[in-house]
Amino acid sequence: ARHRRMLTPAFHFDILKPYMKIFNQSTDIMHAKWRRLTTAGPTSIDMFEHISLMTLDSLQKCVFSYNSNCQEKPSDYIASILLLSSLVTRRPHKLYNHIDWIYYLTSDGRRFRHACEVVHHFTADVIQKRRMALRDLGQNASLKPKQEKTLDFIDVLLMAKDEEGCHLSDEDIAAEADTFMFEGHDTTASGLSWVLYNLAQHPHYQDQCREEIQELLHDRDIEEIEWEDLSQMPFTTMCIKESLRLHPAVTAISRSCNEDVKLPSGQIIPKGVICLISIYGTHHNPAVWPEPEIYNPHRFDPAASKQQSPLAFVPFSAGPRNCIGQNFAMAELKVTLALTLLRFVVRLDKSQTVRRKPELILRAENGLWLQVEPLPAEP
Known about the structure:
The protein is mainly α. It is 50% helix and 9% strand. It comes from Anolis carolinensis.
């Protein structure tokens, strides 16, 4: 709870606004790759592969003010994060892997340890350098973005204080930064990949979103989404929300009961029991969402959604432990989706079967392949 209170300023709108430039730039880099791949015509692209690198690129810049060019060339740090995400998912499937000393003797365990060292060394190095820079700034350090540099996540954590004026330790800051890197890239990549899949399945909704974005940017010299634009794309937002309902990036969460909980059936969940709550199950429950398998963005029309329980739609969880980065994630989702629809048509690849695959996040078996074609430039 103490950490949560100290982290909250890192996600204030004033901190998030300058990140818009980063979201636009990272999306531009990804789209430049797509244009190269589509020079000979429509090309099938694995959305998860490309979008994961794009969200990692954005996060490195937002968390560490570090540009690894990971969308263009290999990065040890990024490779380690991707490897760890895969190993963590695989580990529980074998009983002996639950015992640490046995796991670390296996080839997976050795790779896990090495990847952890790479990630931890990178984070510790950034924190140490930034702490020295802040020490030099002394009293002039504040939570306002500097003109020459966007205030990043590490800056905010280094300056954060609790009610008694105590700062976070380097270990605490490293843990929070690593969590943000792991939780922030995969989930947003999943949300983006699935919304593009749903709009490829429903071209009339895709066209409607595109018209909304074109209208928003029609008198601009530069194709760039600004902070004020985020509230000016109501239908695109409805499409994103309906996709997060149908394909929530995180499929389940757990909660420990701190008191006895009485269910409508009269049964009691005793205090201390850890419950697994299925977000996917809630979003696909016909008693909560009629015709739950149908993609219908109009469910999230403001007039219709007033009738819904606030706990019917929980892609970012709910309550005091909900996702602290949900405004960050929604901003990045909107920027990337808007720019993508402005520049490309996305279609289903009929040669590929799409099957949902729940891991740490909701993926697709063998990738999520969609056909991408650049829109002709307007005269």
